[in-house]
């Protein structure tokens, strides 16, 4: 069927929700990875209701037209980038909170709500949803679910999969399924809710989610700032905190290159060359005792340590960490990588990164969610396209993580950018099995084709 | 192929691991549900190694012979019961702890280890694995994973799915897949680990698991005993605890019929007719403050409340709860049901149970994991087979739970006993989709056929 006929069907069914303006089509090509599709999609559908999503998918399956689901477009793996001949299905306008139940510790929401907006609304009930991506002010709950995103609080408060009870899923043919439960426990058949979390738009379109909430944490927050002579010592110190049986809410590590770029951005004094920085927050009723114990471990591991109970000072210290992305953006185009390793292997992974830097003559500023072993090495280059040498270095990075018992991607997903490495981690048998499972949901292969699985 | 030829192949490959003694074949017909298969299976294979499992499955797939995987046989839904023409594959002898990593908060274990044995070994490292089924002394980690079992601590410490990082899975054709990660975060492709958890032996055979551990909880444990004039008041009081933002480690409710039977078993004074009992434990550094706050809520809701910080008294109170199964066994054959509802609906569910009792002239002693909304109504009858009237009453029970936003099974699974209700909860579309996914793993349908999905 011609593009014109597909557009005519979409317009007839969806009216104003159909958007074919140049600016919208151009925006739908890219996410925050820096990567863009080869050209503009056919159309953007701004779904307002579940029915809009179902209508779009019925037309897509009837005409064999690919559909790329998008939220706020803040992904870092190109997973939501739409290209020629594809419909970009935006759920950003479906942003309502349908239900908040403090007595059942759950909320039912539409996927387009921003993470930070949700938590602002929940705070009025004394509640919060724990997944806390660094992008929380600009990223959606649906995108969080689609990528299985992580964030800063995972070691203590869990990942997205631990915080979703159920999802409403529109299949490729437009049928609506309600997966999961409203209960704490539920084991009826296969856990399709968990299968959908992190599936990056290849199984269906998440149009609603039942979220598992927590009570807001009681007590003051304590913040620890620790400086180390080098990143290896800092990484070992973070591993020692976990090994000592202590559990920070947040433990972030900035290497020297990251620190230098951020200080430059913020107009702070130039840090001592080579030094690395660790920022820790503890919370809950034992926050002060935990902070004291963690400070002792960090000092014994070679850190110069300061503990603060002042919330303003805590925010100032974390703001340095949160300035990583803008600081990198000033250096050039950035490919933000996302390997994760067992927590004991953090220093070993930094050693491997240093080797890659030397071998390729690169500087790879790296920040780590050190409490859970997730590292974000940043490759910096000029121009829009990732140079071949960067991909070669990234290839070594991925295999180093796998060697250490880790993974290609802790929280950003495979998307378009890592699909050629997926089988390296899964093995061919599992890769093929996963592909067949996706085909059960989407026999025609119209949902986000070319993403996750290399074609 | 004839049974004799299948046995000859198994004997040639597995030698002493093959068991065709009458006692073993008879034992493999049943679990703790009271339900048994229609006759003895072909053989029991006592796998000692992953290779034994792979060899068994290669022969099974080559000959089209069904395989029913078993652990300790403590299931409550008939999911591990093996019948005529089937191979019972026991993993109970694969019970080694392969690795404990306090620094990475993980352990790698074989599936046959008992839950309690694992936690005894982990305690030496100051660690524990949170899933805590009431059967922990006699049930295996593999069975826990296969059923997605819950237990007493789920509201505070999560369900099995939150506590498993990866599983090693032997497919129906004997291939071994390594699913999941050793890292806190990991989003490479579809989350097949979560799909396998709770899949009741229909996707493959779990031969190893990487478990996510916790540090042993610090601080004393406080125990609260509360008595209420009736079960509805007790249930409302439990809901009020959750609604007040308090989080017990354990909150168990016993109705009057349960309490009477247990007191009779233990030789305790006969309880006042109609009274219901709630036992709460708090733990962690705020245990005492939490206990005081919970006691206040329970008193305001009508309870007569006593708080104890004596561990012996705490154990004595919980022992009453743990005597539920033996107390029921003295009354007759028991069908232990397992519905779960949102926590706010606990009292409403007890009302529905009372209506069913009246309508069918039954007494249905019921205990509830009141912290998470999971109820275990016990149907008592004479003889080995569930009478039709009991299934009619159970049918009403299941639909009452669904009406209240709940589920057929919180933690025991579908197995053989609930398969005819599965589509009532999932809907026909999702039921069919789940069945197709299982077929991707097991195209011949030799893995636990007739379980989960009604044929």
UniProtKB/TrEMBL annotation, chains A, B:
The keyword Hydrolase does not apply. The keyword Cell inner membrane does not apply. PROSITE patterns: FAD_PCMH. Its cofactor is FAD. One of its GO terms (molecular function) is FAD binding. It comes from the Bacteria. It holds the Pfam family FAD-oxidase_C. Keywords: FAD, Flavoprotein, Oxidoreductase. Residues 37-216 form the FAD-binding PCMH-type domain. PANTHER family: GLYCOLATE OXIDASE SUBUNIT GLCD (PTHR42934). This is FAD-binding protein. It comes from Microbacterium schleiferi.
């Amino acid at each position: 069927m011609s593009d014109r006929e597909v557009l005519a069907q979409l317009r007839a069914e969806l009216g104003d929700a159909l958007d074919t303006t140049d600016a919208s089509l151009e925006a739908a090509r890219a996410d925050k990875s820096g990567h863009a599709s080869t050209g503009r999609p056919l159309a953007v559908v701004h779904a307002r209701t579940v029915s809009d999503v179902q209508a779009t998918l019925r037309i897509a399956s009837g005409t064999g037209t690919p559909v790329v689901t998008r939220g706020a477009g803040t992904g870092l793996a190109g997973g939501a980038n739409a290209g020629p001949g594809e419909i970009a299905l935006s759920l950003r306008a479906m942003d309502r909170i349908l239900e908040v139940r403090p007595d059942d510790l759950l909320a039912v929401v539409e996927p387009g709500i921003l993470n930070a907006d949700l938590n602002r609304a929940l705070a009025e009930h004394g509640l919060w949803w724990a997944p806390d991506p660094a992008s929380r002010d600009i990223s959606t709950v649906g995108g969080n679910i689609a990528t299985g995103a992580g964030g800063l609080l995972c070691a203590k408060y869990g990942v997205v999969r631990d915080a979703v009870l159920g999802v409403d899923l529109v299949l490729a043919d437009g049928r609506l399924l309600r997966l999961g439960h409203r209960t704490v426990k539920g084991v009826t058949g296969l856990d399709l809710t968990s299968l959908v979390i992190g599936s990056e738009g290849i199984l269906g379109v998440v149009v609603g989610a039942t979220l598992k909430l927590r009570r807001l944490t009681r007590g003051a927050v304590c913040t620890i700032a620790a400086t180390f002579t080098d990143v290896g010592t800092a990484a070992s110190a973070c591993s020692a905190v976990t090994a000592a049986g202590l559990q920070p809410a947040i433990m972030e590590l900035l290497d020297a290159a990251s620190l230098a770029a951020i200080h430059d951005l913020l107009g702070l004094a130039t840090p001592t060359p080579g030094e690395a920085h660790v920022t820790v927050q503890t919370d809950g009723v034992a926050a002060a005792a935990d902070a004291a114990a963690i400070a002792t471990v960090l000092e014994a591991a070679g850190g110069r340590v300061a503990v603060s109970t002042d919330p303003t000072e805590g925010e100032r210290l974390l703001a340095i960490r949160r300035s990583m992305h803008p600081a990198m953006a000033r250096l050039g185009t950035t490919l933000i990588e996302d390997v994760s390793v067992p927590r004991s292997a953090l220093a070993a992974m930094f050693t491997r990164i240093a080797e890659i830097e030397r071998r390729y003559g690169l500087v790879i500023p790296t920040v780590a969610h050190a409490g859970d072993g997730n590292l974000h090495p940043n490759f910096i280059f000029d121009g829009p396209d990732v140079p071949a040498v960067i991909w070669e270095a990234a290839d070594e990075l991925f295999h180093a993580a796998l060697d250490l018992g880790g993974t290609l991607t802790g929280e950003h997903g495979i998307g378009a950018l890592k699909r050629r490495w997926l089988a390296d981690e899964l093995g061919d048998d599992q890769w093929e099995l996963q592909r067949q499972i996706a085909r059960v949901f989407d026999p025609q292969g119209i949902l986000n084709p070319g993403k996750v699985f290399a074609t």
